[in-house]
Amino acid sequence: MRLKDKIAVVTGGARGIGQAIAELFAREGATVIVMDLLPEGRQVAEGIRKAGGTAEFHSVSVTDRAGVEALFKHVHQTYGRLDILINNAGITRDRTLEKMSEEEWDAVVDVNLKGVFTCTQAAVPYMKAQQYGRIVSAASNVGLRGNFGQTNYAATKAGVIAMAKTWTMELGKYGITANAVAPGFTMTEMVQQIPEAHFEAIKKAIPLGTVAQPIDIAYGYLYLASDEARFVSGICLTIDGGTAR
């Protein structure tokens, strides 16, 4: 087991890529703390326990600093460690630049960028104390190449990559790595809502000819969270089937 005895917090773990990460980490021996506002997160934790793993669900928003700090304190008091933080929670509010409202900009920045900052800032003291930590945050290939109608989303994902590089410099001496994962189109509920004609065009633009499944992305997170990647820090692992950038 690649994560045996590790304690992992997965934000946005109720469905999609977050759910795949939570379930894979549990199979690899981690105790998983599923953090999400969606009630489906409870079912994810229950499923992990039924399969023989250890998991908790907590309905906490990444934008709630007090809630985040209380949760991480609970995790440390309960398990004595906090080894892995997966900053997966994210939202979209798509609109072209001229039509995007300030509220749509702020909502995406608050969750996708500030939420990553808030959770990481709360986790780091525990990781520093134990001289060990793995921080892996959700970027996107959109953060590398941009995307029509996603000024807010692309900006936050580029910011996540920059934060990982910065944290590498600040936290490396404490045995903490910080990386990002940049998925391309992945078969989540959001992608399933794309009209069929547009979806087919998307697939044709991907050299491998198909979109990812959540588990394809989860394996990238597993590598970066494992001790196999002990000397990997400050990178953005792109998992997008070779999409042109």
Automatic annotation (TrEMBL):
It comes from the Bacteria. Coiled coil: none annotated. Keywords: Oxidoreductase. It is an enzyme of class 1 (oxidoreductase). One of its GO terms (molecular function) is 3-oxoacyl-[acyl-carrier-protein] reductase (NADPH) activity. Residues 6-184 form the Ketoreductase domain. Pfam families: adh_short_C2. The keyword Oxidoreductase applies. Its EC number is 1.1.1.100. InterPro entries: KR_dom, NAD(P)-bd_dom_sf, SDR, SDR_fam. Belongs to the short-chain dehydrogenases/reductases (SDR) family. This is 3-oxoacyl-ACP reductase FabG.
